[in-house]
Structures are given as structure tokens and as C-alpha cells.
Amino acid sequence: MDVFVLSKMLMQDSHKNVFGDDLTPCCFSPKTGFYRDGYCKVGEEDHGVHAVCVELTDAFLQFSLSRGNDLMTPRPEMGFPGLKAGDKWCLCASRWQEAFEVGAAPKVFLASTHEKALEVCSLEDLKSCAADLM
């Protein structure tokens, strides 16, 4: 294997969280993430930047529905189980920020939130909703 291919593979596997540490898993049941691997990894294909690991609330699910994104209804044909309050999920950074601005943002797991979220959300805003800061 040539050095360029190897370095590209290693770069793809090294995803960092908002603190610059290795990204930790968000959730395996239901399996979340743009790549459905349990992580909020962001790659070139993920135009929505599904970077923010959250614990869903009824308020956020209703907010998302009001914005045209029904996360509650199962869609078996797409392998989507439908979500409920208490589920952990990787949200689009822009949707989380939009919810934050109207007081509907769910709690965030910073260790599992990809650093790309910082292109849309401030670390201060994310920290104010952190579920994993002591």
C-alpha cells in the first residue's frame, strides 16, 4: 500500500471531539451517526454535519417536527427505527444551534461531539448544555 493511501486511511480514522481528544461513541442502540457506526463522525459526504451527540427530549423532537424533520416516525425501508425522548443521537450542528437559540436544545455529550460542530456552534453554547461536564 502506498504512503499516500495509508496516510489518508489514518486521517479518516482519527476523529476528534470539541476538546481535540479522540471522539468517543455516541450510541449503538439505536445506532447513530451519519455512517450509522455509533459515532458522530463527519466526512465529505455528510453535508448536514451530524456532529452533535445529544440525549433527545420531547421538546426537541417536537421542535424538529415543526421544522419539517420528523425523527419520531419509524421508516423501516430506510433502516430508521424512529426516536423517542431519552435516545442518544447525532444531530446536525445547525439544527442543534437553531434549537439552542429558541430554548429547545437537548443536552450534549461533548466527548462524543465532533470538532466540526465548532464551525456552527460555539463551545460556550455547547458547554452550557453539556451532560458530561463535572
Briefly characterize the structure.
The chain is of the alpha+beta class. The protein contains four helices and three strands.
The number of distinct helices, counting runs of at least 4 residues, comes to 4
Low-pLDDT sequence parts: 1-12
Provide the β-strand percentage band.
Answer: 5-15%
- The topology string of helices and strands comes to HEHEHEH
Shape: globular
Number of strands: 3
Question: Can you give the helix content as a percent range?
Answer: 25-40%
Strand order of the largest sheet: 2-1-3
Features:
134 residues, alpha+beta, three-stranded antiparallel β-sheet, 26% helix, disordered N terminus
What does this structure look like?
It is a single chain. The chain has 134 residues and is an alpha+beta fold. 26% of the residues lie in helices and 10% in strands. A three-stranded antiparallel beta sheet has the order 2-1-3. The longest helix is centred in the first third of the chain and has 11 residues, at 3-13. The termini are far apart. Mean pLDDT is 90; it is low at 1-12.
